[in-house]
Amino acid sequence: MTIVELPLVDAEAAPVSCCAPLTRAAITAEDAEVFARTLKAIADPVRLRLVSIVAASEGQEACVCDLTEPVGLSQPTVSHHLKILTEAGILSRSKRGTWAYYRLVPGALEAIAAPLVGV
């Protein structure tokens, strides 16, 4: 297994955390629900690969047409995974003609990690 370090979209932007760091304070039930939904969205091997591919693409943006072959899945299945990542706020989507392009939301990965680390 190869570990790929995902580049930051905007190194200057401060990450926005969804909840208090787990190492500093007990997390509320509501924050735990939000955090768990976000973790579930990214905790799928295909979705992790998609995020990695988008982040490593030129301009940190990729067309859905370029994402099907690397993960070996059909376009509808890839679109389903991308929809989940978009709804979780990890990717953003823009439509150009008949194609959809996906981009990593600035600070999204840092926001996912923030509750797990002490700041």
3D structure, described in words:
41% of the residues lie in helices and 13% in strands. With 119 residues, it is of the alpha+beta class. Strands 1-3-2 form a three-stranded antiparallel β-sheet, covered by helices on one side. A hairpin with a 2-residue loop joins β2 (91-96) and β3. It is elongated, with a radius of gyration of 15 Å.
Keywords for this entry:
3-stranded antiparallel β-sheet; alpha+beta; 119 residues; elongated; disordered N terminus; 41% helix; 5 helices
Q: Average pLDDT across residues?
A: 82
Q: Pick out the low-confidence regions.
A: 1-16
Distance between the termini: 30 Å
User: SSE string, helix = H, strand = E?
Assistant: HHEHHEEH
What overall geometry do the principal axes of the alpha carbons give?
A: elongated
SS strand fraction: 5-15%
**Major β-sheet annotation:** 3 strands, antiparallel
**Main sheet: strand order:** 1-3-2
Helix count from the secondary structure assignment: 5
The helix/strand class is alpha+beta
Question: Helicity, in percent?
Answer: 40-55%
Compute the gyration radius: what is it? Answer: 15 Å
**Number of distinct beta strands:** 3
Structure summary:
This protein has helices at 29-42, 45-56, 68-71, 75-87, 108-113; strands at residues 61-63, 91-96, 99-104. With 119 residues, the protein is of the alpha+beta class.
